[in-house]
Amino acid sequence: MSDPILLRDDHGGIATLTLNAPASLNALSDAMLAALKAEFARLAGDGTIRAIVLKGAGKAFCAGHDLKEMQAGRQSPDRGRAYFADLFARCAEVMQLIPALPQPVIAEVQGIATAAGCQLVATCDMAVAAEGTRFGVNGVNIGLFCSTPMVALSRNVPRKVAFEMLTTGQFIDATRAAEVGLVNRVVPAEALGAETRALAETVAQKLTAAVKIGKRAFYDQIEMTRAAAYDHAAAVMVENMLWRDTEEGISAFLEKRRPDWS
């Protein structure tokens, strides 16, 4: 029997998901999208998991959609219209599950992250990249503008940087990706796993309920006007301040001791 297309390993409150299709550079095939959707649904209700790491097996993080599957979809009488509409809707659903998860999701990126694979990096809450990693929304090179990857990319990097990447199809390296805000940090390849794990552990040590409410508020306020965002954030902080564990955390800080969180 073949190995599962998506692997999960839980340790110390951190779930590591591994895209496990190295022969296709971990392409977001129909099977991969289905596996991600199912696993994200399980993680959403798993109170034991406080952070998630998403990585790829083999030499690449993710090369985007499976072009062979997409070409096969053209064989239908409508030349693939229904299949393509369904594919991009399913991909968009999976991408939108990531910010909706209560746990922060950290991409651990090596090799390449292209097209929908770059979209996946941009969609994760944080990302750590190995030196030498390349990022691109290069569909335009084969006549397909990366319109859906554009949604996540343009919400991560400056507008002109995103537009240049989308219209030229040129790749950027990990250093440039960090400069423009696509990834949080760049580390030597041999340190990638350890550095990503350290970031996940730092997040996992915080008050889980506070991170959960904060992540939800973070994404809610981004879509609002500034005034509405301040109103919403203030209401969230009021709710947060009234928690027993927040009161304990502040008291512990003032008294210079470790908090006794429930």
TrEMBL record:
Keyword Transit peptide (UniProt): yes
Sorted UniProt keywords: Fatty acid metabolism, Lipid metabolism, Lyase, Transit peptide
Keyword NADP recorded: no
Lineage top rank: taxon: Bacteria
Membrane-spanning segments: none
Alphabetized GO MF terms: enoyl-CoA hydratase activity
Function: May play a role in fatty acid biosynthesis and insulin sensitivity.
Family affiliation: Belongs to the enoyl-CoA hydratase/isomerase family.
Protein name according to UniProt: Enoyl-CoA hydratase domain-containing protein 3, mitochondrial
Species name: Defluviimonas salinarum
